[in-house]
Specification:
Shape: globular
Low-confidence stretches: none
Structural class: alpha+beta
Number of helices: 13
CATH topology of the largest domain: D-amino Acid Aminotransferase, Chain A, domain 1
Bound molecules: adenosine-5'-triphosphate, magnesium ion
Number of domains: 3
Mean pLDDT: 95
Largest sheet: 5 strands, antiparallel
């Protein structure tokens, strides 16, 4: 019997369009002899689109509006064997949709409520990983209320970390709302931008030198495996949105040319982080490797990483001998195994 899969894509976050790109790749790759896939696009307003509007959104690459209230449409998820929520960012990758599907009793690809929520929030991630003994950059949390009522206390946190530093919305992705702040004169604008997107903002010390950026894919539930290590190279000051999504701005190197012991350390740390955060199914764990000092610092864990055929995560497993369509099929298996 073919497995009936509901593919959720789009969503309310700044990564709506990225999600639709991933969804198109997954749709094209799921073996038709094994899977019967129904896509449902979620508009930027958070409403679930019926079939014709979904089709239109997949073709145009965006759904600004339309559709039904989630609680109405979610009932249509009943009858599917599994859901593949290929959603990035808040209201998708952060445990909200995972909670809905858990309540509905439908298996789904990827981490559950806990792993999704904790991994989405950069501050919670850092706290959990610190308690697991994993090295990271120094950081401070700031909440919107403090920025309004006591801005000097937030500026003080920045002074303590020193410049340059990074200011990031705690719950976002694709570098949306992230600024590299070179000096105190750039700080307020960066904070204003980040607080326009999130109640919680993280300030992060920059690595001692421009880091090499290496990433590992993790696949599995309670006995996860790590892919080879990949590296991203680019000319930009940091890996910002434009560099991520403009063709030709960044290159992927798999396997990353690293000393064997560094690659082994990165893979081991990625597995440890995956377990510490209670992730499931898949995650892409991103690191900074500071060549000058030999430091390996964990940057973040993405529980629903970019998933087009040319994205890092599928490419990492392809290098390990798992094709894109086999990878997708394996993820569905892992979702069913977790029931
Ligand atoms: P993703 O799209 O992978 O989910 P994101 O939006 O969660 O990304 P980060 O990975 O936290 O954002 O940061 C984006 C980029 O900013 C990094 O890839 C890196 O280039 C740069 N960067 C972020 N934090 C630091 C830091 N502390 N030191 C040096 N560079 C940093
Ligand atoms: Mg991220
Ligand atoms: Mg992300
Ligand atoms: Mg990142």
């Amino acid at each position: 019997m073919k497995k009936r899969i509901l593919l959720l894509a789009g969503g309310q976050s700044g990564e709506h369009e990225v999600s639709l790109m991933s969804a198109r790749s997954v749709l094209a790759a799921l073996p038709v002899d094994q899977f019967d896939v129904t896509p449902v696009v979620i508009s930027k307003e958070g409403r679930w689109l019926p079939p014709t509007q979904t089709q239109h959104a997949l073709e145009s690459g965006v759904a600004d509006s339309g559709g039904d209230l989630v609680l109405h449409r979610a009932a249509s998820a009943e009858g599917y064997d599994a859901v593949f929520p290929i959603l990035h960012g808040p209201m998708g990758e952060d445990g909200t949709v995972q909670g809905l599907l858990t309540l509905a009793g439908i298996p789904f690809v990827g981490s559950g409520v806990l792993g999704s929520a904790v991994s989405m929030d950069k501050v919670m991630t850092k706290q959990v990983l610190a308690s697991a003994g994993i090295a990271q950059v120094a950081w401070r949390l700031a909440v919107r209320r403090d920025w309004h009522d006591r801005p000097d206390s937030v500026r003080q946190s920045a002074q303590e970390l020193g410049f340059p530093l990074f200011v990031k919305p705690a719950n976002l992705g694709s570098s949306v709302g992230i600024s590299k702040v070179h000096g105190s004169d750039e700080l307020d604008d960066a904070l204003t931008l980040a607080f326009s997107l999130d109640r919680r903002v993280i300030l992060e010390a920059m690595t001692a030198h421009k880091p090499r950026e290496v990433e590992v894919g993790i696949l599995g539930n309670d006995a996860p495996i790590a892919s080879p290590v990949g590296e991203l190279r680019f000319e930009a000051d940091f890996y910002d949105y434009e560099t991520k999504y403009t063709e030709g701005r960044a290159t992927m190197h798999i396997p990353a040319p690293l000393p064997a012991e560094v690659a082994a350390q990165v893979r081991e740390l990625a597995l440890r982080a995956f377990r510490a955060l209670d992730c499931a199914g898949l995650a892409r764990v991103d690191f900074f490797y500071v060549e000058e000092t030999g430091e390996v610092l964990l940057n973040e864990v993405n529980t629903m990483p970019g998933f087009t055929t040319t994205s890092m995560y599928p490419k990492l497993f392809e290098a390990a001998g798992l094709s894109y369509s086999d990878l997708v099929a394996r993820l569905v298996e892992l979702a069913l195994e977790r029931r």
